[in-house]
Design goal:
Layout lengths: L1 E6 L2 E5 L4 E5 L8 E4 L2 E5 L3 E3 L8 E11 L3 E7 L4 E7 L2 E11 L1
Antiparallel strand pairs: 1-2, 1-5, 3-10, 4-7, 5-6, 7-10, 8-9
Length: about 100
């Protein structure tokens, strides 16, 4: 059984027991969250929502929060003496999927 959920403008395919990094939600560890933006559920047969599946929800448990590795953005225009270097670190909430209810 798997579900496709939406969080922070991104879509994730999840199963029970999966660990994934969502956008930061400022929650304590061991807190539970319910995600109701379920786009599709496959429990033997595929149910696709328009845009969301009615009555479907995914329950997850917060493990911790943190910051991702730094991503360096470097832009250079050749022969123009023009360059820009920027860095970015994403804040995330690590969650474990505990149940999928269709």
């Amino acid at each position: 059984m798997y579900a496709i959920i939406k969080n922070g403008g991104k879509q994730y395919k999840v199963q029970e027991g999966d660990i994934l990094l969502l956008d930061k939600m400022s929650l304590e560890p061991k807190a539970t969250i319910e995600i109701t933006e379920v786009l599709a559920v496959n429990a033997g047969e595929l149910k696709v929502g328009a845009p969301y599946v009615d009555g479907a929800k995914v329950t997850a448990e917060v493990i911790n929060e943190g910051r991702d590795r730094k991503v360096v953005i470097f832009k250079k225009r050749r022969r123009k003496d023009s360059k820009v270097k920027r860095g970015f670190r994403r804040d995330f909430t690590r969650v474990r999927i505990t149940s999928i209810a269709a």
